[in-house]
């Protein structure tokens, strides 16, 4: 590893105000998915350390929330500046543990930092209300207070940004945070904690617990000091966390699976639609919850669009994310490759045709060829489940009503996209899609300024934007008799 600042790659975890070294007890190896080589080790912690961290976060919260908003904001701002100043090192750590190409990893660091910057600003704007009273002598005050200790559980596909999007608003709101990062990508989380401490954020306020998910998650959900659980990952685990949290009535923030439709209407700019497809489908090698999962193309433009798409995809370079020019890295692990293979085999057995790719890449390991399938239909597995890989399944449709029905025919409701130019169609379709987010003539919708989140089985709550701060605040109503 050629880091400028080697202290950012720390084989230790901050727990309740002190660092626990991986060498101090049992550890977990972290592997580079591009090479299979062991990158390093993190401590294997459990329920006891999670409890310790939760109690420390609760103690640290009081003085933290009593600091002025300007002070908390200033420390978050300093954290943002340190993340940006160390962007190259953070990107390298991210690529080595996650696999995405280095330029894309650097993009994620900037994206992740933008949440810290945004919430540093929002911290100074946590305004309450004064409501006209219901009686002559009454004034109704509404104040916003930190919700309490926050437990955050994050996935491997965005090892930096999914953390900052949760931790920055929680700290800005005045909460303490205990984080369990994905086991595949803990070093990005630890590097963020190193920089948070360097920025002057009290160490006991933000702990990182590495170790077995079920045990740590069990403590996080059972512990009554935790008032909010914020999770990004699969719908199955999100539902489990919600069930586990029911006994202590916690507020849930759930960013779960998607099954995004991407619709190309006959009045679309096809070149722009192809460009948008590449971004939406192949960002992070198809491993995002907002990736296009079902691509619907109107009959009259199907041949033109699919030919352009295949030509563009054939040019995407597959390889180790550390090599220049690589656009598609490895998939995260063997299970991810097997899921992609299962979806392709199922689709082909039910009549889909392969236009491009379809198999493991000649580089071996978990590399996979970018793939295009045509004649895909609603009965196939790929139409119902998130593939989380570099497969573009193309469906045909005839008219607007037909495609809206097909696009909404899923239990999920996270992101959706469509390309069209007719203004009335744009409004009609945007309003009819049952999704938390709609990209119109764009394949990239994620930004710190906008509310990110889904409906139905895709989750609860919103992250980013001014709404993202509200998730970590409680309203208190004070009735004042004057
Ligand atoms: N919405 C999204 O952004 C994401 C969606 N997914 C979807 O989920 C599928 C499976 O991916 P996977 O990584 O297994 O996703 P998971 O939902 O299993 O993992 C996400 C996070 O939850 C943790 N976790 C897992 N089980 C528990 C538990 N019982 N209690 C508490 N925390 C838990 C994981 O820890 P650990 O790593 O230690 O297991 C990780 O930190 C993907 O193929 C994709 O379809 C996956 C990731 C992100
Ligand atoms: O896949 C995810 O977990 C979230 C999508 C990343 C983003 O666009 O913010």
Question: Brief overview, please?
Answer:
Keywords: Oxidoreductase. The protein is α/β, with parallel strands linked by helices.
Task: Explain what you see.
By secondary structure, this protein is α/β, with parallel strands linked by helices. Helices cover 39% and strands 22% of the residues. It has helices spanning 47-66, 69-85, 87-98, 102-122, 161-173, 186-199, 213-222, 235-245, 270-282, 302-314, 334-349, 381-384, 400-408, 423-432, 465-470, and strands spanning 12-15, 18-21, 27-31, 38-43, 129-132, 138-146, 149-153, 177-180, 206-208, 226-232, 251-255, 260-264, 292-298, 353-356, 371-374, 391-397, 412-413, 415-419, 437-440, 455-456, 459-460, 473-481. It has a 7-stranded mixed sheet with strand order 14-15-16-13-12-18-19, with helices on both faces. α6 (186-199) links the parallel β8 (177-180) and β9 (206-208). The radius of gyration is 23 Å and the shape is globular. The protein starts with 11 loop residues before the first strand and ends with a strand. The protein binds NADPH dihydro-nicotinamide-adenine-dinucleotide phosphate and glutaric acid. The site of glutaric acid has 11 residues, from α5.
